[in-house]
Amino acid sequence: MEKLKVNKEACISCGSCAGMYPDLFGFVHDETAEVIVDDIPEDRKEDVINAIEGCPTGAIGYEEQKVA
Ligand code: SF4
How far is 24 from 46, CA to CA, in rounded Å? Predict the structure, then answer.
């Protein structure tokens, strides 16, 4: 299973993702962005692609999750 993540090492806090989709990305715990929803709804996949492409450092992407 893959989960959408922000690589906090790579995020430069530009605000692009959270500015475009404040219901998907936010600055909750620190000054770097994070994904604020557990599961991306099917009809938001295109928005996620836009956010990934709009991130200047390529910090947003899918990460393989271990299923317990
Ligand atoms: S667009 Fe990328 S660099 Fe900018 S805040 Fe979002 S994750 Fe960070």
Answer: 12
Give the CATH number for residue 28: 3.30.70.20
24 close to ligand 1 (CB < 6 Angstrom): no
Which structural domain range is residue 53 located in? 2-64
Q: Is the distance from the beta carbon of residue 12 to the nearest atom of ligand 1 less than 6 Å?
A: yes
Ligand 1 pocket, residue 59 CB under 6 Å: yes
pTM listed for this prediction = 0.92
61 token code pair: 């992407």
For the segment 12-52, what is each residue's pLDDT rounded down to a tens digit? 999 999 999 999 999 999 999 999 998 999 999 999 999 99
